[in-house]
Amino acid sequence: MSETARESERESERWKERGVALRVFVYVFATHAFAGFVWLLFYVGQNARK
Q1: Alpha-carbon 36 to chain mean position
Q2: Could you tell me if residue 25 is left (phi over 0), alpha (psi between -120 and 50 degrees) or otherwise beta?
Q3: What are the φ and ψ backbone dihedral angles of 48, each rounded to 5 degrees?
Q4: What is the structure's pLDDT at 11?
Q5: What value does the mean pLDDT take over residues 22-49?
Q6: Residue 37 parent element (H or E)
Q7: Any idea what DSSP says for residue 47?
Q8: Cα–Cα distance, 40 to 44 (Å, whole number)
């Protein structure tokens, strides 16, 4: 395997790692945003005038 092929493979792996990290960040953020929205709905429902 030539040096340029190895470098290309390393660069490809770096992009994959960045993609996974970005995906994890987005999933965690989206999950927390959804949980916060649900919490807000319960809070508003509990304090609504009846």
Answers
A1: 16
A2: alpha
A3: -75, 150
A4: 85
A5: 96
A6: helix 3-46
A7: T
A8: 6
Q: Copy the structure tokens of residue 49.
A: 């005038």
**The pair of three-digit structure tokens given for residue 27, joined into one six-digit string:** 């999933």
Sign of the dihedral through C-alpha 48, 46, 43, 28: negative
* Average pLDDT score over residue span 23-45: 98
Tell me if residue 44 falls in helix, strand or coil.
helix
Assigned token pair, 14: 């770096």
| Cα–Cα–Cα angle for 38, 40, 30, rounded to 5 degrees | 50
Roughly how many angstroms between the first and final C-alpha of the chain, as a whole number?
74
Q: Give the rounded percent of residues in the chain with a pLDDT score beyond 70.
A: 96
Tokens of 5: 């092929």
